[in-house]
What we know:
6-stranded mixed sheet; 8-stranded parallel sheet
Amino acid sequence: MESPTLVSVAFICLDPDEERVVHKAARILQEEIQARTHILPEIVAEAPSSESMIFLGTGQSRILPKSGLGSLQPVGDSPDAYRVVSRLEDEDVIVGIQGNSPRAALFGAGRLLRRMHMSRDRWEIPSNLDIDAAPNYPLIGHQLGYRDKTNSYCAWDVAQYDRYIRELALFGANAIELIPPGTDDRDDSVHFPIPHLDMLREQSRICDEHGLDVWIWFPAMQDDYTDPKKIAKEQDVWRQTLAVLPRLDAVFVPGGDPGHTPAPTLLNLLAQLAPTVSRLHSGAKIWISPQGFTQEDLEYFLRYLATEKPDWVGGAVHGPWVNIRMSDFRERVPNRYPIRNYPDITHTLSSQFPVPEWDAALALTIGREPVNPRPVDAEHCFRFSQPGSIGTLSYSEGCNDDVNKFIWSGLSWNDQQDVFEILEDYARLFIDPDLTNEFAHGLYALERNWRGPLAVNTGVQTTLRQFQAMEKVASPFLKRNWRFQQALYRAFYDAYTRTRLIYETSLEAQALDRLRQAGRTGSRVAIRVALGLWDQATLSPIAQDLRTRIFQLAEALFHSICMQLSVDLYQAQYETRGANLDAIDYPLNDRQWWREKLSETLKLATESDRQARIQELLQWRDATPGGFRDDLVQPHNRDRVQGWSPYASDPGSLAGPSRRFPYHKSLSALPLSWRGGLVTLGSHPQRVRYEHLEVGAAYELRVAYGGLSRTRVRLETVEGVLIHDWETPIQQTDFHRHDIPAAAIVDGVLNLVWYPEPTQGGSGAVCDISELILCKKRWLT
């Protein structure tokens, strides 16, 4: 148990001959303490007597032995290892921090800052620390791409990047990955404070000042690298970009997403680019990910590493769209090549690690890049994907995933650490030490908001009240804190969405009830009243106080951290790029579909025709007696789907199907249950099993597709009975209908298999299905 001791003034003592990164660490300690306490510790070369003192350095220091703390040498030979020791001497606290390298001294300083209680009224240093830390994985870092599509990074100036890189380093990040111009994004942004190449230079410089490694993500974007002119052009692009970087340790080239160069051509290109890299930055090598490769390309890539043994390859990268497990990848990549993990910690849907059991109402509003602290999921994904690698350099497209970065960094240092302790350190240093426990619990509560059917999750309202209570006692400084603002934004957004879902579901139930009364009231009256009820969602909207607060917080976040939560208001690139303010009122019932269908119904000439059409619409998604209906978009409907695997052991759904939602918010007149689908990855088929069917009966299968894949599919039974040959699963306003031959039902069981076309599957999502209805045909006449 730590014993905090109140201090008023302290000195930071270090050897003047220490390397520049150690001096940087001392200044960071000084500045971070001053920022929170308004006390500026003096940096000195000699320790005054009878004062609280922080001794900082490496094994080369001539100062540390004078601290009186004994040996501070960290255990182990990791260059990033450090030791932090403190003791009480009279009424003063003496702290010693020694790193195995200059940047390890910075990591030790960060560990001390994370354990201190700093506020304007209290400044406490634990007086009985004895921390010996070495990372479990040598690579710990995050991607910070200065490009237009990010929801915040594109608007940051040099000072903001310096601040954020510092904060990542204080939690032990030792690498940062940059992104060049000329990728799958615009070359410029209305938000850029300085040109792209100028910012790359500054980011590299900042990393070097902190002693951090610098990587750059460099996709191959041209269309034909068999053309010598295209190769020469690519060499010029690499030379001009890499030459501006003061420091570069590695280049990462993805095989796809973006870029679609076949493996033989890509490897030939990179072999010619490698000398440019090593000439400009000695020791830097090229790392390659097979993401986006077809199975044939993946096999070629693995054979190339095994047989050619290229020295210019630094290692392989495992990440999104590499559709084999890390353990299998490690087994097949030659041992001479290390593997870097490249986890997607930033996206919630249509991604490597989508949110499990997510309600469609959230997917269709807050979307793919929301503020997304996921402590439980992050730990699952870490334990699933990290072993076998040398560590993580995560995929990020904005500060929406800020909490997740610190969780991955913390687990990379100590994979046995309680994630709650990481969140406590986060809250203590970045939020308010007096709200440490409350805020850490609040981050878990935000994740629980996203578990299961939203309408029955009463915890969402509890989470909001908890954050409102913290806001009530927050200082003016904390209310301007972007991390606190993000948490508030999420709490209010979730609560508003749930309130609206319940309201709009109720309106739809009332509208459908009026349509069922059409035989008594007349078709025109029933339709008019029903449409009026659906219109209440916009004419008499609910919870406008919550909505107003969400807009206020969006404005605050734009000013504090340049988050672009709206295209119109803040010039985000697209709604899918974190601009979920623009989807805040997305319909949460089927009123668009019903308005289109009922408008057509009103045009029918006779009352009897209108009455018949209303009844048809009310029943069109019903399964006949003895049949089945499965809405595969909602999280709880999967009884007949085969091949599910637990999220904890397969969060990337590499072994089975997963629920996915489209990137973009379609305004077409589709039911909500068709705005997404169940998919598999790569060449995996989709399997559905029906039992207890009537042998010899004729059935009709109705299929609705989510529009998530354009890969053609072939539908047959396990026994080989063809239902339909290759066809594209086009999303349409009605079902695809297929007769089921009697021979397809064996002993009352129908085992359906959707196979993706092998030449088209690649590594993307295939076989997407939104809804299935199996009907007995004799009831359809």
